[in-house]
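Moderator note: this is an archived Q&A kept for reference. The question asked for a predicted structure of one protein chain; the sequence and the answer are reproduced below.
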Amino acid sequence: MLNRLDQISVRQVFFASIGLVVILLAIGLATRENVADKPYLTIAGSGFIFNYRVADAYYGFTAIVEKPVRNYSRIEASFEDPAGGPPFLVSTKLTPRSKRYGLRSPPLSGIEKDKPYRVTVRLVQNGDDAVLFEDAFTVASQMSDVVMPPAPLTIGPGYTRNPDLPDGWKAPSPE
């Protein structure tokens, strides 16, 4: 075994190393993702949240930044109002600390089951206000807001029953 190691020259090790590096570079180039082909934002998920404890319902989405963007650029979202008013406008600034951002509407009422509500998303660049990304999608709820209590179920840190709730209040059955 030792005799075979003595027969390997430095020149052979050098050329074998070069060959290995070339093979690894070829694999890297073949599997590389081109950043230019990616959109600036990807919508990772969206949905409605019914928080019955505080008598709150809202909807929102999570966006992931896929390409480098100037710091303090902003994501702007427009949420359709289920009650029929003007859309709600929400925005958040991008920071170097995160690539994932969650935006949500303010508390809502008038939510109908299986009705799609429109959301428009824009990524606006800091400095020149150029729109780098724009998309629209819809979000539908699996239930209406008739199941929400008329007031928060509990108050305070001890989960004390809310005295403003009618005695014996029970949520109506979902549609």
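Archived answer notes: The mean pLDDT is 86.
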